[in-house]
Write a structure and sequence with these properties.
The complex is a heterodimer of chains A (564) and B (370). Chain A has helices at residues 2-39, 41-48, 57-93, 99-111, 114-126, 153-177, 180-188, 193-204, 206-222, 225-230, 237-246, 250-278, 290-305, 308-336, 351-356, 361-396, 400-412, 415-426, 438-464, 466-475, 480-509, 512-517, 524-533, 537-563, and strands spanning 145-146, 151-152. Residues 283-287 of chain A have low confidence and may be disordered. With 564 residues, chain A is mainly alpha-helical. In chain A, helix 9 packs antiparallel against helix 12 (250-278). Chain A folds into 2 domains: 40-336, MetI-like fold (Orthogonal Bundle); 337-564, Orthogonal Bundle (MetI-like fold). Chain A has a two-stranded antiparallel ribbon with strand order 1-2. The longest helix of chain A is centred in the N-terminal third of the chain and has 38 residues, at 2-39. Chain B is α+β, with helices and mostly antiparallel strands and 370 residues long. Helices cover 24% and strands 35% of the residues of chain B. In chain B, the strands form 4 sheets. In chain B, strands 6-7-8-3-9-10 form a 6-stranded mixed sheet, sandwiched between helices. In chain B, strands 13-12-11-14-20 form a 5-stranded antiparallel sheet. In chain B, a hairpin with a 2-residue loop joins strand 4 and strand 5. The longest helix of chain B has 18 residues, at 168-185. Classes of the chains: A mainly alpha (564), B alpha+beta (370). Bound molecules: adenosine-5'-triphosphate and magnesium ion. Adenosine-5'-triphosphate binds at residues 13-14, 18, 20, 38, 40-46, 194 of chain B.
Chain lengths: 564, 370
Amino acid sequence: MQLLGNRRFITKVVIVVVLASLGIFVLLPTFYLVSFTLTRWPEVYADVFANPLIGDANWQQILRYLTFSLRLSLIAVILDFLFGIPLAYFLARKQFFGKSLLEDIITLSLVIPTSGFGVATLLTWTGVSGLGALIGRGIVEASFVIPLINVPLLMLLVHVALTFPYIVRTLQGKLEDLEPAFEEASRTLGASAFTTFRKVIFPLSLPALFSGGVLAFARSLGETGATMVVAGIHTTAPMAIVRWVSEFKLATASFLGFLLIITATIAILLVDFLLRRDGGFKTLGFSMTPRIGDTILKLEKAFSGKVRWLKDFVSLAVVAVVVILPIIIVLISVGAYWSVDPDTGKIQGSVLYQLFGPSNYFATLMKATLASIFVAVIATYIAACIAIPSVYLIKRYRNGRILRYLLRIPLIVPSSALGLSVLLLWGPSGLNLGTPGIWLIILTHIVFSVPVVMEPTIAAYEGLNLLRYEGVARTLGATPYDAIETVSLPMLKRGILAGVILSFTRSLGETGATFLVMGSDVTVPPLVVNMVESLAFSAALFASAFLIALSLVLLLLFRIVARR
Amino acid sequence: MPDVKLANVTKSYAKGRILAVDRVSLHVHDKEYFSLIGPSGCGKTTTLRVIAGLVEPDEGEVHIGDRLVTHLPPEDRDIGYVFQQYALFPNMDVWDNVTYGPTVKAWEEEKRERIGREMLQMVRLYDRADAVPQELSGGMMQRVALSRALAAGAELLLLDEPLGALDAKIRNELRYEIRHLVKDLGLTAIHVTHDQAEAMAISDRIAVMRKGRIIQVGTPHELYMNPKEIFIANFIGESNFLEGTVVSLKGDVATVRLRRDLQVNSKKTEVSQKNERIVLAVRPEAFEMAKGKKKLVNGLSGAIEKVRFEGTDIRYEIRLANDDSIVVVRPSLRGGWLKEADEVTVGFPPEKSRLFLYPPKGLRAELELE
Ligand SMILES: Nc1ncnc2c1ncn2[C@@H]1O[C@H](COP(=O)(O)OP(=O)(O)OP(=O)(O)O)[C@@H](O)[C@H]1O
Ligand SMILES: [Mg+2]
């Protein structure tokens, strides 16, 4: 009895500690910006809408950046869907040589440090050593805007490259779970492959499509690192936050951050509402007049026949062009720029000169690398310590669902808004627990690392029916804690590992939030942006290749460990 | 007119390591109720899927009616297919499921409505048209799946273990219902099952498969009375197998020496020579049995080791004087029940037994289900 009482007490303590750390380290920083904006409303209002000098010019700018960002994200997500869906279907249903390599490449753009990827894209499309080598000059100007949709090409390319994996991964997982019998039944009843997709597969995987779409949208809305590198003259909302903070326009910056958080949250709520209403099945099931219906059926039939391979080909080609090509080119170009700038022939433009010359970027880079790894290790470790017990809270208690819901918000909040929130909360102008620097970076990275570790762990948990196995262990005489330690944790290992790797690489590549809280303790991704901005392009090239290589090595390690 | 012809159809998996279907040739006649049976993993489903176009064969040809369909996608084959787990679309109600075929074939509104109504009335589920599949019982889902397959207008119905997921009582009722529908509508049906009793009860003809090959095709009666192989004698119904050698052959009768010099007569089948090593197969229900020492045709004495009451029948496990074990089945309401340890005499008419050559790999290997 004594023992039982003790155990209950320990359970309570554990719960309180976990909840408290979730609240303090994750939820408080996420929502602080909202309360900051609301509690200081007069100040914000004065700055944004009624500035004595410029009137509501700040508001006009906010509106402009926000609509630009929304348009960019929306178009990126539409493109993601267009070729992510066929790709997911292809991966889910076909077995072929090199499939796991292709899957790795798709994952790669989730873990790759974005500013490095930005450099790669910039080089590929505008540099002479990229695709331009074919025609002797850059393919496009960095600021080239696609007519009609009015979005800069390079930005769109990086946003698609960095967000389509969310669609592919979630949809592929769903399709693999979906019984092939549904498709087969549809085919035997006379429906062509495309009709089957529209009437059966698509409605059944709508929830997965929606959640993938939300993640992709949110990531695009908050993307900073790669965007800053390829931006040229354009400015997105997260970039504006970074700039305003560096100009000490905190009120305006926080109002924009507030709007970004609200937008992302509304997107989640909306999708959740639609899905809850009828499982999402009927949401897109608009009715058609019979004539149009028949025409569509005929078209689908025609497409199901001869040109079916085309969709696979196109989506694979897109992956090759927007993901693989830039990475290869950046790795190769380090060699081309090694001792001389191939463009101008000047030695000052070479990798060697910029790294070891007067500006000595090499020392800075090494210091930044150490800082990056230190931050990633500590933040991931603390995040794992908070996230793993949280998974148990979420799955074991009835109200855990609310917690899970709340914890998805840091995943979709644009990271520069998050950084600003942390800065205002813990920084000198808030509780003053730390000045911008490495500890503040760690505090920031913990905020998004907790949900990043948690999601794959929950997914693993849900796939395993752990309660049953733990039950078995307990009928064999194990205490609840023994059961968790000896049965569930080992079974969850893969999920946890995936989460830890994702969180580690994400921390390693994070740019937007880090910019705001780093002070003088620069990590690698902001350093790359700084290099680009100070026109030390070859040094940026080297640092990008270095970052990409680092994350490739990590991914490789992950595969080796996961095989075991 | 949909008859179905398979010619040398072969399909392997895992880079040829698993031969799921091995040079199968088959002719299913128009309007025939045909069953494909065999132990688990023998390739029944794969054969059916080749016919449906859900699997493309490595080799061989498939004809449906006078069309060569080997490389045609399933939607162009005009078939109805009923899946074991029904595969009712969870995103549609019963009505939309049943009218799915007519809809995707772009039939006219009026025809679509009529067919949907008829089909649902036929399986007595018209009043459940608004239900979603998850709300239905197993038997109802099965009937919806059946009417959905029929509504698409196909004259060839393929059924893969259509009753496999139902409990015994409903299974028995539904199997006759399916046969009736098929016969009433004048369809050709190919029915896959591993339940030989089900196949026997409803089929015009049956093909028995084993390890990817078809080993015998015939009416239920033929398969029961004249199994071509030991395996079939055991798989269709049940058989006792006694090892022995042929002593003499006279006219239609073969005299066989069992272990320990017991002699019995049997019908001369397959066996052609004296001194040949054979297996004598006798069905449990072919035996007569009497208590104590009696004079019976092919009489053998033994003792009852175990009695099992199975409702309709009683099973006796009997050890013969030569130490062979056999099973004898008697209808339970025929009276004269015997107890364990009773001494008995059993006998069987020669024409109700069969001789098989002793299988080269041994009897046990021959009877294995895999
Ligand atoms: N898609 C597949 N990939 C690999 N092997 C397969 C596949 N489909 C079937 N097989 C193998 O082919 C063999 C025949 O399978 P099939 O499903 O046709 O058997 P079955 O007679 O229907 O068995 P059951 O009664 O268990 O349904 C089996 O050994 C099976 O493991
Ligand atoms: Mg089967």
